[in-house]
Amino acid sequence: MSSDSSRPMASDAGPAPTGAGSANGSALLEIIGATKRFGGLPAVDNLTCSVRQGETLGIIGPNGAGKSTLIGLIGGSLAPTAGVIRFDGQDISRLAPHQRARIGIARTFQVAQPFAGLNVRENVIIGALFGRRNLSRAEAARVADDVLERVGMENKAYLIGGQLTVADRKRLEVARALATAPRLLLLDEVMSGLNGSEVMQAVELIRRINSSGVTVLVVEHILRAIKGVSDRVLVIHHGAKIAEDLPDNVLSDPRVIEAYLGQRYAQQQQQAGAGQAPEEEWKGGLA
Amino acid sequence: MDYGQIIVNWLLLGGFYAAVAVGFSLIWGIMNIVNLAQGALIIVGAYVAYVAFTKFHIDPFIGIIVSMAVLFIIGWVIQYVAINRVIRAPFLVTFMLTFGLDLLIIDLVQLFFTTDLRSINTSYGGAGLQLGPTRIPYDRVGILLVAVLLTWGLNEFLSRTRTGNAILATGMDRDAARLMGVNIARIYALTFAIGAALAGAAGAMLAQVYPFAPSDANTYTLDAFVIVVLGGLGTPWAALAGGMLFALAETVLPLIPGVGPGYENVIAFGVLVLVLIVRPTGLLGKAFYA
Amino acid sequence: MAITPEANATSPGSKPSLPKESRASRMWLWNTIIGLVLLAIISIIPLFNDPAMLHTWTLIVMFCVLAQGWNFIGGFVGYAAFGNVVFFGLGSYAVGIMLNSGKPFWLGLLVALVIAVLFAFLVGLPILRLRGHYFAIATLGVAVAVGELVAARDIGGSGGLLSVHPPTLAELPLFFYGFVGLSAITLVGTAVLSRSKFGYALVAIRENEQAAEAMGIASYWYKVAAFMLSAAPTAIAGGLYAYWATGFDPTTVFDVSYSVEMVLLAFLGGAGTILGPLLGGIAFEYMSYQFSVSGFTLHNSLLGLSIIIVTIFLPQGFIRLVQEVMRPTSLAGADDSYWLRIREGLRRVQRFIASNGV
């Protein structure tokens, strides 16, 4: 099916992403011409995009495309070689990570980084204590308990961070980030390492988070999941944006197919003719 | 001011410092261990050469080989018995362990040899080439040559032999090397033993050139650290380069009016902090052995 | 709820919804009380009228203070400073010089405190940008360099040798009480820190500095503050020592092996705990004293050997060892008998020690 950008209908893969109702169109995060070079190679290459208040933006792209670098640029662990990053109209390109957390940008790490010696509850309390709001320890404890319940970890509150399973670590990452009361949540491949049912739970959780008012940026490999949460999808390849559209349009865009599966497959798709939704093919191969 | 003499002093000192640091650099680069006992091992090497000379009349240059052999064995035992048990622990643990070894070794040396200054005085000790006002002592030239030879030899061993490659591989990725069939415990023991042997060589050189006492040990450890920071961890040649740079600082800075002797550690530390702040990966090398 | 391991001595709960949090959350208080009681018992020593004993225990408590001070930067933040003896030396010289210029002792102590904390700030700014090995050696270098500088510049006397007029015999117990009081204050301060927001930030930095920053903690400034905090009791201890010892030189008060000793003591008892450094100090220094009394002159050998043994077999410290042994990790295990739990715990610890090896 050729690229046809006039299909805003819900796909047949499930209920519509929840963000659609709360997106009010104003840009919360603007990335303007961002470039990040390591040595000679640009990991992110003159990227421009924006994230609207209240939406969930999915970011996909083949391995090494620069997705994690982009998260690093937004989260503050990397400084852009060129370009500007604006949050709520304010230029944050030079802010340190902890300052960004204070203004409402929270992130998870691709490889989970729990406070290994502390238990789950303490991990989340730290997020609450030092995040966007200046809370006392008692208030932070209450917020932590509340967040743990929201993510479904209240039963594991006293397990030690370093001894959690992969899935629990990922959930802890999300809980901890949520405790900082973020306005923008960056999820860096939070579903990697999860099995099928865990992925479904993660999708549900992300939707709940988004409908509670948090703008979410989801970097993911699992296309099925991206479709399930995103209002819009951004596709990155070799550090540059190659598509930015509604999920269905993006997933049927031949340039995107080519980036993931190669030129020959894209041609095969064209030859196979219309009527067959390409993402059905992908489900077997990629998702 | 005799610039020629300064340059000669600098080069010869640089060779010595390269020997001091190259073993330390190997241990750090491959095993990520900062061997705080390096200075102590150097001093042991000095005493071995001293005993070889005074008791067995072995020429100090041969004494270098004797020291290397003795320290090789000592190093192997230390690694196998002690350090291998903590190598996966957080770095503070191995740091403390090597410091404990340092304390123990120095104290034992003091017990056997007292704190008196010792030195080796050979018949040819004072002889040298006289070029105008500049004096080039033969024994120091010999030391410089040995140091360069050892550096080259280590480099060849690491890059061209199978065992050497195994050492490099273990340094890059211990678990991958293990999967390739490398016996990690033995490779680590070998690495530390080589590092200790090189320390022994440096000690034997030291014994010829300067008077030494057990209390000098920690100064040499600090020096080795600074040299490695200066040159980086990349290859044995980086240690040589770092040694040259450090020797330059030590030769030139005391000449500044107002500064005199007795500031060695201040200089070392000052250089260290400056480099660490400005270029944490060292002036030349990379973050690990390659 | 405290953020020290004493407070983490919880089980996941025999039933998922019943955390034993309320019991564990008072562990910090118990540990503080135990520490204060220990110090109270020790304060009886002067009543024995035994000058040798008083001398010994004065030193023992002094080392406890040093370990407790180090605990702030080394235990809570996890940055292994190996040069904290520099604050001790600065404190000693500050008091020594003040005394020799006729100023009162308490003023000397105040100056010692201010100088050391200021020094910690100025030196901390560049040095705390370093991590791991580099930080450790840099602090070591600071201590060595300052000691050398003091000697070379003849500060306080030729070669840095400084002597003050000795205190009267009746005043000697005052130093003892001074150290005990200092230790008690530092103990309480550590306890308060462990329950404060500031303490949480330090621990977060220790556990995962990158994550801590992502959570909004300005780790750099917290580290500098902790470093300054560690300087304070160390400097006052140095000041007390200066007057008590009536004379000293750079090799004594800038002795690097003191630096390592205070690390070992905190390590032995449990770095990052409230009670650990105090316990470790008392245990090790007392044992060390027993050895020297029986004619054993190799103090450094003993120290070195102890360090080797501790790092191989007791890397978490005594308090964490106890707590780890006692902690049930499975729901079934929570109902086991005491003895079974201890055996399982010991096995777990043994596995942990083995996991540190090649």
Number of strands of chain B: 2
Oligomeric state of the chains?
A: heterotrimer
Strand order of the largest sheet of chain B: 1-2
Mean pLDDT of chain A: 83
Largest sheet of chain B: 2 strands, antiparallel
**What proportion of the residues of chain A form beta strands (DSSP E)?**
15-25%
Q: Helical proportion of chain A?
A: 25-40%
SSE-based structural type of chain B: mainly alpha
Number of helices of chain B: 11
pLDDT averaged over residues of chain B: 87
Question: Which SSEs are present, and which pair or pack?
Answer:
The complex is a heterotrimer of chains A (287), B (290) and C (358).
Chain A: H1 19-22, E1 27-38, E2 41-52, E3 56-60, H2 67-75, E4 82-87, E5 90-91, H3 97-103, E6 105-107, H4 120-130, H5 137-151, H6 166-179, E7 184-188, H7 196-211, E8 215-219, H8 223-229, E9 232-237, E10 240-245, H9 247-251, H10 254-261, H11 263-272, H12 278-285
Parallel strand pairs in A: 3-8, 3-9, 6-7, 7-8
Antiparallel strand pairs in A: 1-2, 1-4, 4-5, 9-10
Helix pairs in contact in A: 4-5, 4-6, 5-6, 7-8, 10-11
Chain B: H1 3-31, H2 38-56, H3 60-81, H4 91-113, E1 128-131, E2 134-137, H5 138-160, H6 162-172, H7 174-179, H8 184-209, H9 217-231, H10 236-252, H11 264-278
Antiparallel strand pairs in B: 1-2
Helix pairs in contact in B: 1-5, 1-8, 1-9, 1-10, 2-3, 2-4, 2-8, 2-9, 3-8, 5-6, 5-8, 5-10, 6-8, 9-10, 9-11
Chain C: H1 21-24, H2 27-42, H3 51-76, H4 85-100, H5 105-127, H6 132-152, E1 162-163, H7 172-194, H8 197-207, H9 209-214, H10 219-245, E2 247-248, H11 250-253, H12 256-269, H13 276-293, H14 299-313, H15 318-326, H16 338-355
Antiparallel strand pairs in C: 1-2
Helix pairs in contact in C: 2-7, 3-7, 3-10, 3-12, 3-13, 4-5, 4-6, 4-10, 5-10, 7-10, 8-10, 12-13, 12-14, 15-16
